[in-house]
Amino acid sequence: MDFLHDVLPHIFGGVSALLNIFSYQFKDMRRLLFLQIASSLLLIGQFFFLGAAAGALTNLTGILMRIAVYLRAKKGLLPGEKEGRSALLSPWAWGFASLFLLVAVFTYRGPLTLLSPLSMVFFTFSVWHADPVVMRRVNFFLCAPMWIAYNIYTHAWMGLITDAMLMISILVSFFRFFRRSRRTPVPPAS
């Protein structure tokens, strides 16, 4: 058994899984992003030791994107953005989406290697939208399934478990944060 290829990637993936799954239990976008940045650092190591360049470079670019989103959440807007405009009009969102597409081009080794960078294109626009509900929906229906397929392809078993647990965590967060907010208050009895 080769420690660097058979054990170490899964240790990185396991710790990353805990951070990523736990991140969705924060309603605050900045805390969620901070834990996801830490998780992505570990995923770079996981994919590096598995020889999966698309996954490693996607996570590296994802860290840069999450740092920009973190700063945006802290400061309001980034240079070049205008108040009240859609995420689709942000030059920053398009810039990061383009970086992910470049990762897809430079790491292409077949159709399945496109899954990780393309999932992050969707994630970029959802996170730039700055609506936790939108971000969770895009992650649940698009990003996580794409990463699950990529993890199977690259034998990143902890990543597979992470994304399956991530989907469960997103469902739990919907129940905790958003289901209760839809209830209409019952007027007091007269």
Description:
By secondary structure, the protein is an all-alpha fold. The chain has one domain (3-77, 87-175). Helices cover 76% and strands 0% of the residues. The chain has helices spanning 3-23, 29-50, 53-75, 91-106, 115-128, 132-154, 157-182. Helix 2 packs antiparallel against helix 3. The chain is globular. The model has no long low-confidence stretch (mean pLDDT 86).
Describe the protein's topology.
Layout: H1 3-23, H2 29-50, H3 53-75, H4 91-106, H5 115-128, H6 132-154, H7 157-182
Helix pairs in contact: 1-2, 1-7, 2-3, 3-4, 3-5, 4-5, 5-6, 6-7
Give a nutshell description of this structure.
The protein is mainly alpha-helical.
| Alpha-beta classification | mainly alpha
Helix content: over 70%
- The outline comes out as globular
Q: How would a crystallographer describe the biggest sheet?
A: none
Instruction: Estimate what percentage of residues fall within beta strands.
Output: under 5%
- Cα gyration radius (Å): 18 Å
Residue stretches low in confidence (pLDDT < 50, at least 5 long) are none
Structurally, how many domains make up the residues? 1
- Rounded mean pLDDT is 86
Separate helix tally: 7
Give the CA-CA distance, first to last residue: 73 Å
Question: What string, H for helix and E for strand, traces the elements in order?
Answer: HHHHHHH
How many runs of DSSP E, i.e. beta strands?
0
